[in-house]
Amino acid sequence: MSGRVKKRRREAPMPAASAGLLRFFEEETAGLKLRPEFIIIMAACLIAASLIAYFTIK
């Protein structure tokens, strides 16, 4: 045995997709469909409205 110590990898192991252990849903579920851009814009508007309310209603 050598005096060197092996460094552990900090990477996560790859999922075993070929073994059938990793599955993704391929079916469309019923529900509201929103674009990601709409969610980001609405979040920005909510943050802006709360900052405006905070600074004007002191």
Would you write up a description of this structure?
The structure is a single chain. With 58 residues, this protein is mainly alpha-helical. Helices cover 36% and strands 0% of the residues. It is built from one helix and no strands. The protein is flat and about 55 Å long. The relative contact order is 0.06.
Q: Specify Rg, calculated over alpha carbons.
A: 24 Å
Taking the sheet with the most strands, its summary is: none
Residue windows where pLDDT falls under 50 for at least 5 positions:
none
In helices, the fraction of residues equals 25-40%
**Gross morphology:** flat
Strand content: under 5%
Number of DSSP-assigned strands = 0
Tell me the series of helices and strands, N- to C-terminal.
H
Distance between the termini: 70 Å
Task: Please tell me the overall pLDDT.
Answer: 77
Structural class: mainly alpha
What is the count of helical runs? 1
Sequence-ordered SSE layout with sheet pairings:
Elements: H1 36-56
